Every structure is written in C-alpha cells, then in structure tokens.
Amino acid sequence: MATLDEAERRLDRSLPGQLTALLPETNGVVDEYGTDIVWSLDRIVEQNLHFWSPGAFPGLYMPFNPLLFFGDNGGGDQFAFVLTPDRPDIFVWDHESDSRLWAARELADYLHRSLAGEGDWYR
After folding, report:
1. Quick check: helix, strand or coil at residue 121?
2. Domain containing 112: what range?
3. Residue 118: how many CB atoms within 10 A of its CB?
4. Within-domain flag for 51
5. Which residues, in sequence order, are CB contacts of 50 under 8 Å at separation 6+?
6. Residue 22 lies in a domain
7. Which of 17, 59, 92, 108 is the most buried if burial means most Cβ atoms within 10 Å?
8. Backbone dihedral angles phi then psi of residue 90, each to the nearest 5 degrees
9. Taking Cα atoms as reference points, which of 14, 7, 56 lies closest to residue 28?
10. What is the pLDDT of residues 94-114, one digit of tens each?
C-alpha cells in the first residue's frame, strides 16, 4: 500500500483533508453488497492517474483534471472531490452521460448517504 506522501507525490497534488483523515484508519470503505464506497489509496492513485492521462478518453468526456475520484456505485458511476476550485462537496460522474452532479456536502455526508441509501441515492 502506498503512503499518503507517496500518493500525493505520484498524483502531483494534495489529497483532500477529509480523505487523508479516513484512509489511514480504513484504507477504503466497502458496503454490505461489496461496493467500494471509498477505494483503497492504491486504487485512488491508479484510477486518477488513468483518468487524468491525456490519451485515456480523447474527445469522449469533459476533462477529469479538476476531479479526484475516490469511490463508485458498482455500476460505473464514480464519486469525486472537486479539486479546482477546492471545495468539500462530493460530485458523482455519470459514465453514460458525462454529467457531474452534486451528491453530498462533504465526506461524512457522503458516507452517511451512501451506506444508508438504496439504489441511486444520489439522483
């Protein structure tokens, strides 16, 4: 497992404080159905490096650089912090429509909603 310092070095940016507080305690959160509500630190790094790479999705989607993905719904939609501008809100990226919609006001709210919610709780 990467350390937080290694992860930030590889990503070339700081992780949100809410995430850096959670990951050393859990290194991810999985719900009762096996959905990765919060990915492991290694997966966060690998997924974001992939999404941020210039040739990953040429012309398919709006840029992903302002987002830091950290979890998913098990069906393709992914959850992210907005890094630019820096804000605590969580957004969901719909992989079919490329929409980015507000989902929660911060990580604790996201965890509460995603672990207590059913189906597409964020819609």
Report:
1. coil
2. 4-116
3. 5
4. yes
5. 56
6. yes
7. 92
8. -110, 135
9. 7
10. 999 999 999 999 999 999 999
pTM over 0.70: yes
CA 43 to chain centroid, in Å, comes to 10
Which residues are 29's β-sheet partners?
38
**Neighbouring C-beta atoms of residue 85, cutoff 10 Å:** 6
SS (H, E, C) 43-108: HHHHHHHHHHCCCCCCCCCCCCCCEEEEEECCCCCEEEEECCCCCCCEEEECCCCCCEEEEECCHH
CATH of residue 95: 3.40.1580.10
The DSSP element (H or E) to which 37 belongs, if any, is strand 36-38
What is the rounded distance in angstroms from the CA atom of residue 32 to the CA atom of residue 54? 35
- CA-CA distance, 111 to 109, in Å (whole number)? 5
pLDDT of 1 > 60? The answer is: no
Domain count, the chain: 1
